[in-house]
Amino acid sequence: MNFASDNWAGAHPEIAAALAREAGGFAAAYGDSELDKTVEQAFNQLFEREVAVYFVATGTAANALALAAVNRPGGVSFCHREAHMIEDECGAPEFFTHGARLAPVDGDDGKIDVNMLDAEIARFPPDFVHAGQPMAISITQATEIGTVYTQSEIKSIAAISQRHGLPLHMDGARFANALVALNLSPAEMTWKAGVDIVSFGATKNGCWCAEAVVFTRPELATNFPFIRKRAAQLFSKTRFIACQFDAYLNDDLWLDLAKQANAMAERLRQGIKQSKFARLAWATQSNEVFCFISKTTEQHLKQQGVLFHSWNLPRDKQGIEHQDEILVRLVASFATEQREVDRFVQLLD
Amino acid sequence: MNFASDNWAGAHPEIAAALAREAGGFAAAYGDSELDKTVEQAFNQLFEREVAVYFVATGTAANALALAAVNRPGGVSFCHREAHMIEDECGAPEFFTHGARLAPVDGDDGKIDVNMLDAEIARFPPDFVHAGQPMAISITQATEIGTVYTQSEIKSIAAISQRHGLPLHMDGARFANALVALNLSPAEMTWKAGVDIVSFGATKNGCWCAEAVVFTRPELATNFPFIRKRAAQLFSKTRFIACQFDAYLNDDLWLDLAKQANAMAERLRQGIKQSKFARLAWATQSNEVFCFISKTTEQHLKQQGVLFHSWNLPRDKQGIEHQDEILVRLVASFATEQREVDRFVQLLD
Amino acid sequence: MNFASDNWAGAHPEIAAALAREAGGFAAAYGDSELDKTVEQAFNQLFEREVAVYFVATGTAANALALAAVNRPGGVSFCHREAHMIEDECGAPEFFTHGARLAPVDGDDGKIDVNMLDAEIARFPPDFVHAGQPMAISITQATEIGTVYTQSEIKSIAAISQRHGLPLHMDGARFANALVALNLSPAEMTWKAGVDIVSFGATKNGCWCAEAVVFTRPELATNFPFIRKRAAQLFSKTRFIACQFDAYLNDDLWLDLAKQANAMAERLRQGIKQSKFARLAWATQSNEVFCFISKTTEQHLKQQGVLFHSWNLPRDKQGIEHQDEILVRLVASFATEQREVDRFVQLLD
Amino acid sequence: MNFASDNWAGAHPEIAAALAREAGGFAAAYGDSELDKTVEQAFNQLFEREVAVYFVATGTAANALALAAVNRPGGVSFCHREAHMIEDECGAPEFFTHGARLAPVDGDDGKIDVNMLDAEIARFPPDFVHAGQPMAISITQATEIGTVYTQSEIKSIAAISQRHGLPLHMDGARFANALVALNLSPAEMTWKAGVDIVSFGATKNGCWCAEAVVFTRPELATNFPFIRKRAAQLFSKTRFIACQFDAYLNDDLWLDLAKQANAMAERLRQGIKQSKFARLAWATQSNEVFCFISKTTEQHLKQQGVLFHSWNLPRDKQGIEHQDEILVRLVASFATEQREVDRFVQLLD
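YS: structure for the whole thing
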């Protein structure tokens, strides 16, 4: 029973098969193969417009280079206080932007509060050289704590970004999980709602390694080929990424995988709701479930071989009564099986 | 007939099979899986000592982060004028070292000339703050023009690096090809000859994507985990790299693949030597062959579907008489078949 | 009546005279003149030990390069939320450290709270590569809101820095004002209390431009000459800085100037305490006074030609009742005259 | 007899007087004082058009930040092989541009050869991501070896920069010396010849510390206020720079000082031409003279108290026969007196 993280799963059999199929023969390197072009077209269709798509090695690279593409000297980017960029990327966004700052914005349920965002941006008046200058806004979809921005919430943030002339970035490490939760199209969840750049993650949802930066406004990507190459993120045998995306997007595999992960999370939620040994910490919609358990229960579960991580209580939840329990995160993935979920729920009985 | 580059080949079937085999099940992410540990041990055995090994996404990343690990403010690294670092990495080494400089050193046959190296280092007297300070020496093995440093040549350069207290780095994008050409062990070609850090490349020799920075003096790697993570080069599903290296190093597969590539290059050399439509430009020992052909021959070959790149005449070869011919590079890889080589040689008849 | 900032004052006559005296003749450039050496000796005496002292152009440079000297990849430095580094340096500390982060720590009266500092550092467990690694602690003396750390408070912070192996930096843009307020020696306020690096500012206290980074542990400065030169902060005619410091430190001029500034601030405080049109916002000890006034009073003062800046209410003061008043900062300097203070106080009557 | 460097001289009495005059009173900091505005206007008049002018601390800062203003990822700037940027700035240009490279271009007499420049730029084809992309061209006026580009030579280089869409920068550390040598106006030597950005140096010509970046195309400076502040190069008491420039530009003082320096250099040249103990190495036009002397003569001169530096033979001069002599550089400045020159010439008799 492994609920540690969706990146503990391996690759879906279709992905592995694609890698095997593509292994033979010769093809142009550095993004120039036929398959690379095919996948670029697939992204255009997916987003229902011409986009600029660039493969990179990691989700951290996607986020950091997306910001690098819109970098300004003394720049300040605004993201939620618990964003992956701030908490888990070892300063990569700051490094690739030569020291641009990430300004944490608070907000309930892991989502940026629009009023707080406005107030935070107001701390950097135009031309006040001492404070630095606003540069970008970034939201995480699904968020780090398993919640999902509605399209209308995205539009509210986009309205602020447009008012200040700031590009809006979406960290989509769990893009597919949010998408199927909202039942929106990629276009609806991104550029139709005002998102300019997407870190499009597929690794957590069944690929070995498939991350891309997608510019829904390709004019923002003018220098990106040089930014990516200088960042040592241009693979030579790009086919090995392209064939993963090819299989991933083919025949809605990616949506099916995300639905499976979300459904397993939902089953976890149902089970926890019934249990007297665990309490849901807050409502989630995607493939992550957060709950409180006692230290005794924690020990019991670990002894039974259940894997999961404990989690820090988010700032906006710090009023929650939790009676010496610990907060834990349970992540479902495409590879999570129903019987594993059911065994886990049984253990909570 | 594809001699464009060894990175136009895909992956060896054993590598693809390993990826498929490993796809199932769960394993710890970010380098903590059992297989990650197994491969680390394999590197220790390979190098006959404890080394520190870190997977990264690209050869450029390996080179740039190796320098970052030994970075000094105002630092200057010395490498051959035609080094990949200088010619083909879009400034990544400079970027990851915050502007440290690559000082080109000349030398025949793509190899650093020891006297010129000494003279170049002498331009940076200790404590002369205006010029900057020496930081590292880097050699490429096999070189960009297909030649190979002998162990004794490496030792001569290492003697200089030790005299000046500079770490010696080896760009081993074609490490295996050089190794089998010299018939040395990895230990003999590296730390026993004075090499401190190796960019250990496997991508060009049959993997999809498998590059590692190997510190033969692990104490140089103290900060490297943070350097790599901040550089967005820490994969989450590290198993997908580990399983490639596992298969690659298993049962001498890697040496067999390099031998095949080198043998095909040797067969090309023999064929060209016999031809009156092509002349070997210089002696090479690894899997790259450089020759002069006329523009007519070039056109003829291209019409027959032969793929290859033209090449700039290296500085030390600029006295070579080449009668309006062009210089071309032919690269053999693990995937190059004898009948393709023979067809090519026939075309030259 | 100018209370806008101590950097609105010019230079003390002794400083101007020194510049004129030194103008003639020739002297070695780039820090090698006799006078440069003399001033270095003066710093050794001042700090009662051998220190390493480096002139730089601005206080921001002193702070940013001090951090650069102790930089680590993925590094995190801890300073008070209202620190100049965070609020007013346009990201220079992040820039010069290639993206190291400034983690804001809260605390009353503009001073780091020791427990909060401990808790903040604990968020970065050793070897947890995702979060980054602690790198330095920085305190501001006098603080941005005019308060002063006692020697015992400094020692408490130093105890934490030592426990975590972190260097302790002091932003001494108003070093002299704090020193005379505490009646300590430079040694007592710095290395005897555990401070390793000082941004030693003299500009705000009567020089045109005289800032230095002082390493009380010179071994931390090994690479600093290169760090400074690469940062374009090595003046050629260093005499022009040296002669300012020479005059500044001579015959306790610097202490006299700071005492004058502090005394004028004290006189302001006394006047405000008596006034019914202004209320002291909090106790200050150095040359800055913060008070609440009504918008009517603000307008009245401005009409009478008083210059001052309004100020954001610090986070720990946000509970203060201030009845639609605004918070303003009044800064006294060496050049502030008693009659100006008295005229200001009269206006408040 | 001090011919070591023009930065060994102090400040002209007019400059020192200006600093003393300006010392009193209060004025807005950070570039907002009346005097700052006055000097900005003076630059507009000087250049006969609206320019954007920014004070910085050093000539290295001016050069490095000028490049930072036109930075591109993977960028390559072209300058003469012996340029100060390459030889004497400890990697500052690379640092401030996050690793952009300086590509050395050869050329006789310390000046970029137009054909070689063209050939060097051609090595970076547009969109060839591996090599990087051209970013700027920089010339030094007067050059490091005392020669001066004619207006027509500048125009030839500007034609190339325009063809490639590259801004043209002029390192004017000795701007005035070149200007009076050519008898041109600032406009003629810069934007009328195609120069877009000037490092306008006054320190070497009689100021204590007065360097500025002048954008003759102000639209290139959009982000420069943030670039400068983030670089820790925004002085607080900017009056202390402004008053130096004010005095410097007033009543043609700057031209008079440069004429004096050049005249003293000319007198040196005349003397050396007559001597049998020294030979002019090449023709110079500004305030630097290069000549060959024997080691015996060197010792003799040093014993008599003459100060000067030896110099490396430039690459294009390496065919010069110099019979075991050493090459030395003699620099005249505004402070060089005729009797000192005459004493030196006598010593050569």
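YS: worth flagging: The two ends of chain C are 16 Å apart (CA to CA).
IM: good catch. Also The longest strand of chain C covers residues 133-140.
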